[in-house]
Design goal:
Its EC number is 1.1.1.3. Keywords: Amino-acid biosynthesis, Methionine biosynthesis, NADP, Oxidoreductase, Sodium, Threonine biosynthesis. By secondary structure, the chain is an alpha/beta fold. Helices cover 36% and strands 25% of the residues. The strands form two sheets. Strands 7, 8, 9, 10, 11, 12, 13, 14, 15, 16 and 17 form an eleven-stranded mixed β-sheet that branches. Strands 3-2-1-4-5-6 form a six-stranded parallel β-sheet, sandwiched between helices. α1 crosses α12, α5 runs parallel beside α10 and α7 crosses α8. Bound molecules: L-homoserine.
Amino acid sequence: MAKAAVLGYGTVGSGVVEVLDTNSAEVEKSAGEKIEVKYILDLRDFPGDKHEKQIVHDIEVILNDPEIDVICETMGGLEPAFTFEKRALEKGISVCTSNKELVAVHGPELVKIAKEHNCSYLFEASVGGGIPVLRTLNTSLKHEKIDSITGILNGTTNYILTKMDREKIGFATVLKEAQDKGYAERKPEADIEGYDACRKTAILASLMSGQYVKYEDIETEGITKITQEDFAYARSLGMSIKLLGMIKKNNSGFFTMVSPFLIPSENPLAFVNDVFNAIVVHGNMLGSTMYYGKGAGKEATASAVVADLIDLVIHKGSHMDVNLTDAPAQLSDNGSYVHRFFVRVDENSEEQARELFGSEIEVVESKEVFGEFAFVTDLISEKDFKAKYSQLEKPKGFLREL
Ligand code: HSE
């Protein structure tokens, strides 16, 4: 019997315990032995809870118990989660986590410590909730040269964008509704400003490169500037608007970005709606594959944590390689990256826009928007586009096209 401790009895932590209870036979079959949750660390007491007796308030109880084989950290945040994980790994106790913030900042260091102490550090649930994409990258796709990863990595923003599009309501109204229903946080910045997607992109980019991509180095833009007018034009173009995390390998390193993109309707990412996430991985031999599922939520995220827990039990006493080192990855200059851009300007700026962007532009019309001139540019680099856009007298916004 393997003994586990769960750090944090919140949404994900209680979900982990629930998965282990509900699927105990399947978990035992998969791990080759029973997994018992010996301790649950939380500041709170849970009187009347089925697992009340396992609750402890002191991490030392867990770290000093030689019976503990594995720890699931589902507390979130940097501290004290980092210190707890580090101390566990230094004692040779394997750790799995759903904590994307911590993995994005300290992942390489924690993997190194795990390797030095003959144990493992896994973090499947940190990207894409329940979607088994990290494991797939590290197993089924390990022999591929991965040249791009593009994903809808944040459920909250995908829910907001889907609702704005379907119900034709503005960003602020949808956000408020989402908050009232508990889908969006009261402090929504991490989601709507793209910070959450940025951390997940950094983790994917690190695994893709086998090196360390700092989230601070990823150009990140959220969805707060997206308007009903943008959706009206997108409908005219037969496109969707989605917040994407993007990593592309090129000759000078890796291009990384988090930004809203216009997505043509024939692209499968255009059909990923509500809180769902999807990640498209392109390998040199394989071509494109897409991984789709619930990117957030108690049971889905907990299921991914339990998958790691099982792997850790199977590989007790050895180190599982996750293709993540602390060598800094080489990121390329985003300025040279080429897209088509959708641009909106005041109708009085049409002439200037035509002069700046040339005759190659494709004019976009919408019966729902007035007083504007909108167009899609020819392929143009980020650097050249921004130089031209900054000269526009009355710009109203732009979006990149996938
Ligand atoms: N806030 C995140 C999301 C939760 O909306 O996707 C899952 O990481």
